[in-house]
Amino acid sequence: MKNLYKTTVTTQGGRNGHTRSEDGILDMELKKPKGLGGPGGNYSNPEQLFAAGYSACYGSALEHVAEKHKIDLGDYSVTATVKLGVTDKENLQLTVILDSYIPGVDVETGEKLVNEAHEVCPYSRATRDNIDVTLNLLLDEE
To answer: In this structure, are 92 and 126 located in the same domain?
Structure first.
């Protein structure tokens, strides 16, 4: 693989710790959310960071496939909902819902873009067959 970009982030203390990127741009305290027995408050957690990364990466994949097909995405957005749950075997497991809002395209075009983006997105490729990812297309209501 030809390397295009590399970054390093170090976290001390896990979910109740501190995470910092090598360049210091990402530098924050982490705490368990209330739903996992933590204090909540103005802290992030691994699921939020994963959702931010996935929604941004998938959005870039949408841009890539739209450009390939010469389609204007308009003022699009991608919302990633990440859920942490437990399986029947008591293993922790993630699921993701990707809501792609693409105004001004028809259903057929939107579905084509959403599905193609899921094929090329590095996050989608990394998680394929490992976690359930649901793709939703949201359009302008007429």
So the answer is: yes
| Contact present, 19 and 11 (Cβ < 8 Å) | yes
Please give the structure tokens belonging to residue 133: 């990812």
88 and 132 share one domain:
yes
Give 31-82 as a 3 state SS string.
CCCHHHCCCCCCCECHHHHHHHHHHHHHHHHHHHHHHHCCCCCCCCEEEEEE
Tokens of 50: 């994963």
- What is the reported pTM? 0.93
Give pLDDT tens digits for 11-60: 999 999 999 999 999 999 999 999 999 998 899 999 999 999 999 999 99
Burial 69-88 (b: 16+ CB within 10 A, else e): eebebeebebebebeeeeee
Distance CA 67, CA 62 (A): 8
Q: Cα 10 to chain center, whole Å?
A: 20
**Domain ranges, residue 126:** 46-138
Mean pLDDT (the chain, rounded): 95
Looking at the structure, tell me whether residues 71 and 127 fall in a common domain: yes
